[in-house]
Amino acid sequence: MAVGVLALQGSFNEHIAALRRLGVKGVEIRKPEQLQSVTSLIIPGGESTTMAKLAEYHNLFPALREFVKMGKPVWGTCAGLIFLANKATGQKTGGQELVGGLDCLVHRNFFGSQIQSFEAELQVPAIAAKEGGPPTFRGVFIRAPAILEVGPEVEVLADFPVQSNKVADPNYALESQEEDNTGTARKVIVAVKQGNLLATAFHPELTADTRWHSYFLKMVCEVGEGTSSSMCAPGEELSFYQTPKIDLPIYQ
After folding, report:
1. Is 235 domain-assigned?
2. Over residues 122-143, mean pLDDT
3. CA atoms within 13 A on the CB side of 80
4. Is residue 38 assigned to a domain?
5. 107, 131, 205, 213: which is the annotated catalytic residue?
6. Considering 14, 203, 213, 221, which one is annotated as catalytic?
7. Pick the catalytic residue: 78, 104, 107, 131?
């Protein structure tokens, strides 16, 4: 199995290292024709405007849209989530081009600036059920987006409680983040799955926990079933939760 990783900017090396710990090769993708050599793709976190400009310069958007439309598995983390969204708000003047395919509205800079980055324990029952390990995952949020709305076919995999005074966008805070009568803060969505698409607002590649990568690889295997060339060897088991060998500086 070889997984493409969009290598324009951002944390593509960390994704490749995480795949390597699972025994899978990550292939750097920078040009449209390189997408023909892979059957799945990870769009990493980074600076979404810069990534969009580089993708436009290399004429990648038509190829990326076609890749998604063909039903090939694609996982977007942080900036990659923004790329995959059908609609985005909180953008700079003029906005940025999107790949689309994921039926959601994402707020591009929901959690604020770089200095407002944080880590938090997320409840991930769907991931724990399929991959084992603890019921929580340590989410690393770096200048992170959030999903405000999802369509009926989108499965929510993780959400995060947000107090109105912690939200970067004051307009959204006033409209949607008021506490209910019990004093419980409203939640925003930070991880979703829709068909062949997976998206996380946080950075699993910056942790030692490879369960999200294993979960994505299972999506790749499921899509590969029934094709002339199976992407997973018969009987291959990708569900394992263990302390991996660390070969890059990552958050523990």
Report:
1. no
2. 96
3. 30
4. yes
5. 205
6. 203
7. 78
Whether 107 is a known active-site residue: answer no
pLDDT (tens digit, 9 = 90+) per residue, 227-251? Answer: 434 456 434 444 434 444 434 344 3
Is 237 labelled a binding residue?
no
47, 58, 80, 94, 244 from 54: Cα distances, Å? 11, 6, 14, 16, 33
The annotation status of 147 as a binding-site residue, yes or no, is: no
Q: Are strands 74-77 and 118-123 parallel, antiparallel or unpaired?
A: unpaired
The reply, when asked if residue 47 is annotated as ligand binding, is yes
Is 78 among the residues known to form the active site? yes
- For residue range 31-53, list pLDDT tens digits in order: 999 999 999 999 999 888 888 89
61-69 vs 48-57: helix crossing angle, rounded to 10: 100
User: Known catalytic residue: 178?
Assistant: no
In a domain, 236, yes or no: no
Q: Tens digit of pLDDT for each residue in 152-195?
A: 999 999 999 986 555 555 444 434 444 444 555 689 999 999 99
* CATH for 50: 3.40.50.880
How many domains is the chain built from?
Answer: 1
Provide the residue range defining the domain that includes 184.
Answer: 2-224
| Domain presence at residue 247 | no
